[in-house]
Design brief:
Chain lengths: 78, 445
């Protein structure tokens, strides 16, 4: 009976490690596939992000120009 | 102020006098009432003052420790030996003080060690029976530990704190997290072998519960221990959390022994950017896999991925914040106290505890070694090389193990940043130990 206990433990070990590895390997495969699909069909709109920042930069510049013009006009008036 | 005290004292004297007079008057009836003593607790029996003082002195902690009540039962309702009622409690309280020291002065996982240790202090108080079914520690234990609720809630919080980005950008490092689970199953064989050669008497369930310490994951250990061997919960939780805190001491020698200088200097390619959508899909993907492969692991993985999904969704910032802070903090307090209730002398001061501590550290070391060796094995194949130092991060212990990898790597090359690379196997280790836990549960239930 006791001798069986060790073989039982070894069985647990193979089953356990096997399951863990099978699970992780399937997971790796699934993650790679998922990443591929996501990159192919739903690419992140990075380009849009850049243009947005450019836009805001331009807007900031416009604001600055407007402020300068207003300041000059104010000085001229006074 | 003085006057009030004197007045109070006088009042008390008056009361006690009145009682003792009453007691004298009714002492004749005592013979009669003794026969109805079944209801003694409900109806207060007046006693002479001297008897009251003696009775009170008999109830003090000093007397309870020096000459314990032979009829006193443990919190589980079993008989205890005199040692466990007297000196055992004193020793346990000293052990608790040691845990306080380790937590406060040495910074060993104080967030959990302090509640556990204080729970242990309370559980070893004689007479009061705080850890019993009606004491508050017992109530906390039955409320959330006996039914495995608290570890699950902790897992939700951990999920909300975890970033799977590094794992997603280099998925194959997940294998390192798998290899480190060998710590669990290798130790299982070791514990069974110890039983076989007659050193201890662990059942297969107990051996499994002990070996899960090798997963280096506190909530998982507690989850499994309460399910498979609740009588060992205290020792397993203390071993698990104290070894997790000792990761920076245990791991580096093993990592250095198994790698060459050249391997330790391997630089890994920078991680690619991971899009938000990938991070959002990942928790659902893993949960679906768990459902298909091993439904027994879904309580842990489901809770973990729930927390992570809320975080990555980005639209429930309030819930995410609660999971990461308020909820996990409250649960940690209760979990710690509940585990501490199992540090009662009659359950902790047994030879098994020593073997659990030894097996626990073996489990940790074997897990670390397996992770490092797996990384070396993976380097035999073509492809991007892996620095074997991140293999040790495959034992969960997030983020401590990853920091250790980074630190050891920096010792040999100051420009070699391994932290983010090591986070991949680190979080994979959490998934891996949850799967291993699922396997153990499915084998027994």
């Amino acid at each position: 009976m006791e001798a069986n206990l060790i073989t039982e433990g070894v069985k647990f070990m193979f089953l356990g490690m096997g399951t863990v590895f099978v699970f992780l390997i399937i997971m790796i495969g699934a993650v790679n596939m998922m990443s591929f699909i996501v990159h192919k069909f739903f690419p992140e709109p990075q380009a849009v992000k850049e243009t947005v920042s450019v836009n805001t930069q331009q807007q900031d510049k416009k604001k600055i120009v407007a402020a300068i013009i207003a300041a000059i006009a104010y000085r001229k008036e006074s | 102020m003085k006057k009030i005290v004197i007045k109070l004292f006088a009042f008390m004297m008056l009361f006690t006098f009145a009682f003792s007079v009453n007691a004298l008057a009714s002492s004749e009836h005592e013979q009669v009432t003794k026969e109805h003593s079944i209801h003694k607790e409900e109806t207060y029996q007046p006693k002479p003052f001297g008897e009251m003082i003696v009775g009170f002195l008999k109830d003090t902690g000093v007397v309870a420790l020096v000459s314990p009540d032979p009829d006193e039962l443990s919190s589980t309702g079993e008989k205890m030996s005199d040692f466990h009622k007297s000196w055992g409690r004193v020793i346990m309280i000293l052990i608790v003080f040691l845990l306080f020291y380790l937590g406060i002065a040495k910074g060993f996982e104080p967030l959990l060690l302090l509640p556990i240790a204080f729970g242990g202090l309370l559980a070893n108080i004689p007479v009061a029976n705080i850890a019993g079914p009606h004491g508050f520690l017992g109530v906390i234990y039955n409320m959330g530990l006996a039914n495995e609720m608290f570890p699950i809630i902790i897992f939700m919080g951990v999920g909300a704190m975890t970033d799977f980005g590094p794992l997603l950008s280099n998925p194959k490092t997940a294998l390192l997290g798998g290899a480190a689970q060998f710590g669990i199953f290798g130790t299982l064989v070791g514990a069974v072998a110890l039983t076989h050669y007659g050193f201890v008497d662990f059942t297969l369930q107990q051996a499994s519960a002990i070996s899960i310490i090798g997963g280096a994951d506190g909530p998982t250990s507690i989850f499994i221990a309460t399910k498979l061997a609740p009588e060992l919960l205290g020792a397993i939780a203390v071993a698990s959390y104290s070894y997790m805190a000792m990761v920076p001491i245990i791991q580096p020698p093993i990592m250095k022994a198994l790698t060459s200088e050249k391997e330790r200097k391997i630089k890994m390619t920078t991680l690619r950017h991971v899009s938000r959508l990938e991070k959002l899909i990942f928790p659902i993907l893993v949960l679906i896999l768990a459902i298909l492969v091993l439904p027994e692991s879904t309580p842990l993985i489901g809770a973990f991925m729930f927390g992570n999904f809320l975080k990555e969704s980005g639209v429930v910032e309030r819930l995410n914040d609660t999971l990461q802070n308020a909820l996990i903090n409250i649960t940690t307090i209760f979990l710690g106290l509940g585990v501490g209730s199992k540090l009662a002398a009659d359950q902790f001061l047994v030879p098994d505890t020593m073997f659990i501590m030894i097996l626990g550290i073996i489990a940790f070391s074997v897990g670390t070694a397996a992770g490092v060796l797996m990384a070396k094995f993976m380097n035999l194949f073509p492809g991007h090389k892996i620095n074997p130092l991140i293999g040790s991060a495959g034992v969960s212990a997030v983020p401590m193990a990853a920091r250790v990898s980074n630190k050891v790597g920096m010792e040999y090359d100051r420009t070699n940043m391994l932290l983010m690379h090591a986070m991949g196997p680190n979080v994979a280790g959490v998934i891996g130990s949850a799967v291993a836990a699922g396997v153990l549960i499915s084998l027994f239930l």
